[in-house]
Write a structure and sequence with these properties.
single chain; about 450 residues; 15 helices; about 80% helix
Length: about 450
């Protein structure tokens, strides 16, 4: 590299700047689209059904691990796609990933049809809005299944440094979702069918991302061909097992509050949590885009541990500062925004808004380490602490959900992240990265 390892190259700097700029400028547009979508749904469903619709629509947040950690492996492979001319190993990782995830998608569709046949959705989600649930939730589950392989396109775009394009793909999802919602509104369907709109919007954006990724990476249709080397699938996807554990633990610790509230609290508490999480997601999307963009940057600097550590410290400090500003806005404006968003039907307390603000800071403090520690050994360390975090968050959330509702499960997540992720990061990440020089390439 022409630049120092702990400094971004001109190309990386331009990509990060443009991606962040697009995200910041596009956030008001995305917010308006997403909040308008939520407002229509909240108005049509009411406080009682909105929580259930939101629970189904956000299934991707609850079970992102269905890609078995393969999406993270694809992102790392994409970062090295053009580093070694003539070496097809990175492309083979992507090919193998698509083949495996298409099988996973088929399995999810089959499972959804079985649940529908036995009318078992009420047992799984904890509540029901009526007989239309079995059909609407099944369709939502099938759309979700298609997003599993379709999501690799976004990962490839990030890996090859096309951050602006990846950002635009993310921004297209709420636009598609709003169109679907308006179609459902005009046709006057049962309230539960609105659960399909967010997942449909996600799939539409991901299809666009796949087309762009395969074209810009040069893979084209070859991404769906057989691997060119006799290497086994297990070796091609090395490290994805530990990243799968991370993918299981994160939603348990961060998103299981919805499930706990659905089973242990009231529909009103679930709706308050859901609408506040929607507002939270607008701010988090900007920070997560910046953090995720550093994944390929860290991958390409694996041979420079000291410089990587300095870059990690700087990124952590900057993101935490930005998160603190965003958290202040959430705490101050959250209740008002929730009231406007729901047409006055859902009242969010100042304490719940403050809890989401603190969650923002805690989650952001761990984000740089999350995208830095992706090698097999480092992913194993991260997976073990993620399991601890999930256990703490779930256990505390179970104890607090009944008495304290939405505020209780948010506080449980904050404590789990701080004790089992942020604190271990600060203590051990530098030593983990320095071990790279001892382990060799």
């Amino acid at each position: 590299m022409a630049a120092e390892h702990d400094q971004l190259t001109p190309e990386e700097r331009r990509a990060l700047f443009r991606g962040t700029l697009y995200r910041i400028l596009g956030t008001p547009v995305v917010a308006v689209l997403g909040l308008a979508n939520t407002a229509v749904i909240a108005h049509e469903t009411g406080a009682a059904v909105f929580g259930l619709v939101s629970l189904i629509a956000t299934i991707t947040l609850l079970v992102p691990f269905v890609d078995f950690g393969i999406g993270a492996t694809v992102l790392s492979a994409s970062a090295t796609l053009h580093q070694h001319e003539g070496d097809s190993s990175a492309a083979d990782v992507i090919r193998r990933a698509y083949r495996v995830l298409f099988v996973v998608a088929a399995a999810v569709v089959s499972g959804a049809l079985v649940v529908m046949a036995f009318d078992g959705w009420t047992v799984l989600v904890g509540m029901s809005s009526g007989p239309a649930d079995r059909w609407a939730i099944t369709l939502a589950a099938c759309v979700f299944a298609l997003t599993i392989p379709a999501g690799l396109g976004f990962r490839i775009l990030i890996g090859i440094g096309r951050i602006p394009e990846a950002t635009l793909v993310q921004m297209s999802c709420p636009a598609v979702a709003l169109v679907i919602t308006l179609v459902l509104y005009v046709t006057g369907v049962n309230e539960i069918w609105y659960a399909v709109s967010a997942l449909g919007g996600l799939l539409g954006g991901q299809i666009l991302g796949t087309v762009l990724a395969l074209r810009l990476s040069g893979l084209g249709w070859s991404a769906f061909a057989r691997t060119s080397a006799p290497t086994t699938g297990a070796r091609l996807l090395a490290g994805s097992g530990w990243l799968f554990v991370v993918g299981v633990g994160l939603p348990i610790g961060l998103q299981s509050g919805r499930v706990l509230l659905a089973h242990l609290s009231t529909p009103t508490e679930l709706s308050e949590y859901a609408v506040m999480a929607q507002i939270y997601g607008v701010v988090w999307s900007v920070l997560s885009t910046v953090g995720l963009a550093y994944w390929p940057v860290f991958v390409q600097r694996r041979s420079a541990p000291d410089e990587t550590i300095r870059m990690w410290w700087r990124l952590t400090a900057v993101l935490v500062l930005c998160a603190s500003i965003g958290a202040s806005g959430i705490a101050l404006l959250g209740p008002w925004a929730a009231s406007v968003l729901s047409g006055g039907q859902i009242d969010v307390s100042a304490l719940l808004a403050l809890g989401f603000g603190v969650l923002m800071v805690a989650q952001t403090a761990h984000l740089p380490a999350n995208v830095l520690l992706v090698g097999p050994g480092e992913a194993r360390w991260q997976a073990l602490w993620t399991v601890v975090m999930a256990a703490l968050s779930l256990g505390l959330g179970f104890a607090l959900a009944g008495s304290f509702g939405a505020v209780g499960v948010v506080c449980a997540s904050v404590l789990g992240i701080c004790l089992a992720q942020v604190l271990p990061d600060l203590l051990w990440v530098p030593s983990l990265v320095r071990r790279r020089s001892l382990a060799g390439p």
